[in-house]
Specification:
By secondary structure, this protein is of the alpha/beta class. The chain has two domains: about 170 residues, 3-Layer(aba) Sandwich (Rossmann fold), CATH 3.40.50.300; about 150 residues, no CATH class. Helices cover about 50% and strands about 10% of the residues. The longest helix is centred in the C-terminal third of the chain and has 37 residues. The structure holds guanosine-5'-diphosphate (GDP) and magnesium ion (MG).
């Protein structure tokens, strides 16, 4: 499979796994009203509410307009102490965080704020919505003010979030939250998240392939050394040069760069032209001269054309290593440029199906089960 196709498949998989929707994580203690708020926002009873829901070990996704809202189990339970919960649900993979609470804030809540603040520092900033549920229990403005002061005092430094007062039983305040999350500004908020994953994949691919190709160079350089291969001094240039062709061709394989692609779909890249030239005897000789020339003047010019056995071995090794490394650099740069172009041209928008599991359609919303 060619590099381009292989990388395109990688991007496709990332897009499938990460989803091209604005992902909202609904987080909070058990019983805070996370599932109830989802039902209120969507306008249908899709999520199970009540005590039993926190027996669930996984998050459940709901598709709503351009959003994917994920109902996560509460933390601070025996099943999910906060540290395990964080490990399992990795909230930094979400684009917006809904923090739902209905009573006193705990140490876990503060610890979670600190984690969100840390994620924001290292990556893109996730909007945080603070949602105080059960607000019909609040009798006076003073009570609301006290709640406001308390939560803002507990938010970690650098963390900002708007506070909403809602009540799921009476549907109070829900419209305001819904208007906020359906705001156009959140529509493409997932893009940097996916592009970031694409770039990570490019880096990984680049380093794996480059390190494989470097091993190839090392193998062939040893071989060239052991055989005293040296196209300038050897009797048979054609035979000596064959090992270079083999090395270059293996390096190309290491990068999944195919010969016909260099003259075909990659032909507009300047490096492709160079690599095509290196498929000819003259091209290879020219490259070798650029390295060999230095070696010759430096160490063995006195002995031309009779190079001692040891000198020939050393020279053969160094020449093959230098030429090989330069070839690896060229292939790596071309591979990098090809992958860059793939990312640039990648169609991020596509059909609704971002999940590997079959969605269940219920009226006008779609229910997905998260992969464990
Ligand atoms: N009185 C009142 N009860 C609520 C409100 N929101 C949720 N509940 C109830 O609180 C319980 C826990 O809610 P649930 O949404 O399951 O919480 P979760 O564990 O955070 O998902 C359920 O029995 C809900 O019916 C509210 O605003 N007022
Ligand atoms: Mg729930």
């Amino acid at each position: 499979m060619s590099l381009q196709t292989e990388f395109r498949n990688i991007l496709e998989k990332i897009k499938r796994d990460h989803g091209t929707h604005t992902k909202i994580a609904v987080v909070g203690q058990p019983g805070a009203g996370k599932s109830s708020i989802i039902n209120a926002l969507i306008g249908h009873k899709v999520a199970r509410t009540g005590q039993r829901t926190d027996i669930t070990r996984k998050g459940v996704r709901y598709r709503y307009e351009f959003l994917e809202i994920v109902d996560l189990p509460g933390y601070g339970t025996t099943m999910f102490p906060l540290s395990e919960w964080k490990e399992k649900f990795k909230i930094h993979q979400y684009d917006i965080i809904f923090f739902v609470f209905s009573g006193k804030l705990t140490k876990d809540d503060c610890d979670l704020f600190a984690s969100i603040a840390a994620y924001n520092k290292s990556g893109h900033k996730r909007p945080l919505l603070l949602i105080r549920n059960h607000c019909s229990d609040l009798e006076s403005n003073e009570e609301r003010e006290a709640i406001r002061r308390d939560i803002y005092a507990k938010l970690s430094e650098g963390l900002v979030g708007e506070l909403y007062f809602v009540d799921c039983r009476y549907q109070n305040g829900i419209d305001k939250v819904r208007n906020e999350i359906l705001n156009e500004k959140y529509k493409d908020i997932w893009k940097p998240r996916i592009i970031n994953e694409f770039n990570k994949a490019k880096n990984v691919h680049y380093s794996i392939r480059t390190s494989k190709a470097k091993d190839t160079v090392s193998t062939y350089a040893k071989l060239a050394g052991a055989n005293g291969v040296n196209p300038f001094f050897g009797a048979d240039i054609a035979a000596d040069i064959a090992i270079y062709f083999k090395m270059f061709s293996t390096i190309k394989e290491d990068f999944n760069i195919e010969d016909n692609e260099l003259e075909g779909r990659y032909c507009t890249y300047p490096l492709a032209k160079k690599l095509v030239e290196l498929m000819t005897k003259n091209g290879v000789l020219l490259l070798l001269k650029s390295f060999g020339g230095k070696q010759v003047t430096k160490s063995v010019c006195k002995y031309i054309p009779f190079v001692g056995q040891a000198a020939a071995a050393a020279l053969g090794y160094t020449l093959a290593k230098d030429a090989g490394e330069s070839y690896v650099n060229d292939c790596a740069t071309l591979a990098w440029q090809v992958m860059d172009k793939e990312i640039e041209n990648y169609k991020l928008y596509s059909d609704l199906n971002g999940s590997s599991k079959k969605p269940i359609y219920i009226e006008n919303y779609t229910l997905y089960q998260l992969k464990e």
